[in-house]
Amino acid sequence: MEKLLTWIIEHKKMTIFIAILTFLLPLVIVHGLFLWDPKCPQLNPKWEAGDMILYVAGFEAFLGTVALGALALWQNQQIHNQHIDSLEPILSMKLVSYKHILYLVIENTGACEAKEIKINIDNVENIGNAKLEHSFLDGLFKEKFELYPHEIVQGRITPFDFAMATEKFPKILVSVSYTRPDINRKKEYSRTVIYNGGYAEKLAAEVNIDNNKIEKELTCAARALVRTANYLDGYQVGHRDELDILSNRSFQNDLASVMDAAKKEKIFSHAEIMEHCAENKTRDITISGREMENGR
Predict the structure, then answer these.
(1) R_g over Cα of the chain
(2) pLDDT tens per residue, range 140-157
(3) Are the C-beta atoms of 128 and 101 separated by less than 8 Å?
(4) What is the tens place of the pLDDT at every residue in 271-288?
(5) Cβ atoms within 10 A of the Cβ of 195, count?
(6) In what order do the strands lie in the sheet with 114-125?
């Protein structure tokens, strides 16, 4: 049906000629039969004006029905074509920079996959003293690839060196071709992509992090902090004890050893602290050393 509608649109004059011929040919044939004398009175009816009017009215009704049917088919075809076009792959592109290197980011924001995608970098402008070197281009631009909806790829373009405040932003001219597999249609076009440094997303840096060592390093840091706290507070606790120690002294033992050795307080062992916490049913340590010695 689509081919028929396309043929009618492309051959309008021929379509009008066929419509006129369809109207006149039966009329001429019927009129000739009326003029023919069959030598038999029963086969020799008269051609009256009412017959002519009836024929014209019937033919007009026939044309109206055919026209309405063709219009309905044409509208359905247009809606179908719009739906097919709405599923077209859309290759959105943007330029981003990282460490003075331009990258082209490509995302399929359409509703259908694009296959046999080929991106050619035709020209690069406004990149300072740098020049486009095809040997520097990412391998992405040297082979075909495919993108399904919402998939993203990026490829290295060229180094650049320019002053953001005084120079024009870089731009590239690319040639794009891809195939839409569901209707086996190939599309080709060219476009310009301009770098926008103010709104470009930063590329994620690749860092080597061994997640297995994170817990170990944190444990070492916690132990170091606990050793320092034990030295300052005069207690001996481990990093796993999770005690809320509210210190009431600062370098007291060190100062007492210099100024007055008699005021030097006892450093309590881990066992004594745990015993005190069990007796008082608390994990908060706020009492002084003398109170702990007296059992208060």
Answers:
(1) 45
(2) 898 999 999 999 999 998
(3) no
(4) 777 777 777 665 555 545
(5) 22
(6) 145-147, 114-125, 171-180, 185-194
